Request: fold
Amino acid sequence: MLELKRLDIFSNTNCNFSCSNCAAYCRQRSFTENYDVEIYLEPLKHLQTYAHINWIDIYGGEPTLHPDISNFITKIKSSVSNNTLIELTSNGWWMPNEDRYRYLWELIGKLGQGIHPELLKRLSLEDIRLCMKRIRDKYNIITDLYLDSSFACFAFTDIPNNTRDRCRFDKCTILMPNGILSRCGILQSVPENLASINFNKYKSSSFFNIFEGNEKSLNEWLNKTPECCKYCTGDTIKVPHFGYETTVIQEYKYPGDE
Ligand code: SF4
Ligand code: SF4
Reply:
């Protein structure tokens, strides 16, 4: 059976930060969505008839703001095998009060944490590291602080370029809310008017239909660079995000807060 190294799943497109380099384009959205977990269950079930999923990353937006995130994780978890690693990627806005989300840390195997400028305004890098260490020690899960590099603002062109050397997402796979596989979230997130004509033209040909596929066709699809990637910069930057700004668009309150 084919081993699918990693599968990303969008929980929502809602975020309380507004980063200019957001790969989910939260800042540019006129409306946000919290996805119903049920839309993912059938595609996941069918995919596993010919692929084993090693690792699922649930992200958004900011997944902790999904009103039913606990049920979302539980259902995804129960629809995959016991040895599939379940990761949640968060922007860490809740730091340093990590115990308020103890019920989430108890459900997952890994917490991924991006370093966003807004967070660095609130806490030092050392405080962020200590918070992650407390979570790791208390809840016995893997924690990963993404300190090395991050998305840059994406740029799109109509002249083909050799993205493969630069894009670190060309090996990613994402299950989109419509049940189709895509190489990365950009294909689903970027508003058409922000991408180039050629990127828009080729993006649908890079999708993979789980229900029409099999192990062989999935393997071929995974090993091919999507045509639309030639028209996307796919750049990464070194963090901490110098040159990129974040603004808080909504201070989330915990249930029971004043
Ligand atoms: S924290 Fe920033 S980059 Fe992450 S989802 Fe929110 S707006 Fe996007
Ligand atoms: S080149 Fe762009 S569209 Fe292609 S995988 Fe990389 S970030 Fe995604």
In short: Residues 125-139 form the longest helix (15 residues). The helical segments are 38-47, 69-78, 102-105, 117-122, 125-139, 186-189, 197-203, 215-222.
